[in-house]
Prior knowledge:
Structural class: alpha/beta
Bound molecules: S-adenosylmethionine
Distance between the termini: 45 Å
Helix content: 25-40%
Number of strands: 8
Amino acid sequence: MRMRKKSNLEPRLENCKGVIAVCKSTSIYRKPESERYEIVDLQNLFENDNPVYLEIGCGKGRFIIENAIKNPQFNYIGVEIISNVLISAAEEVKRLNLKNVRFFNMGAELLQYTLPKNSIAGLYLNFSCPYPKKQYENHRLTYKYFLEIYKHILVSDALITLKTDNDGFFDYSLNSLRENGFEILEYTRDLYKNLPSDNIQTEYEQKFVLENKNINRLKAKIKGE
Ligand SMILES: C[S@@+](CC[C@H](N)C(=O)[O-])C[C@H]1O[C@@H](n2cnc3c(N)ncnc32)[C@H](O)[C@@H]1O
């Protein structure tokens, strides 16, 4: 279902400029590769050198905002391609005056041109679009192309935590991670059977739990030498 464009979207985005730190479109691919790099200085962005965690496809920001409130000693970046969705997250961060959350309004495929190498302490992939058709495999956020980007931006012992209601996407992600240089540290196909007390629900998770859908979760890290 298509989402109706929010009213006054452009001025509202403009009003959240400090919170939405980066806005990039795929027109960047018209430039030669060497000219695509505009690497963000994270210490400058957050005005401290606390560890930075990333959520790709943060939607309306429920998960990242709750994390940031609970963990002021960490910084958080939410990446979201659809500005119509991201505006809700950005306005909430602005309203709460949270200094440890910033957003990048762009596709995850541009992260390699945006984040410093080995700069991210952990990555969250929450209810990523599963793209079940084989022809769209390369859009899945655990496709090998994305995993190479994660290897570039993550610190060596960073955890990837992935949650999804989609069993097919979960199986695909387990295989893709294993085949492309990651180690699966733990996984469950029914997170709510033994729900960890520190679990933070996302918007989609709230909805799926109400529908009694099983929630899959895995934790992975880059395979050591
Ligand atoms: C199914 S929603 C889940 C939202 C949120 N994580 C949650 O659990 O409630 C997936 C989100 O990922 C975003 N998304 C999909 N592909 C993306 C990409 N390549 N880069 C950034 N965001 C992406 C979509 O726009 C959408 O908002």
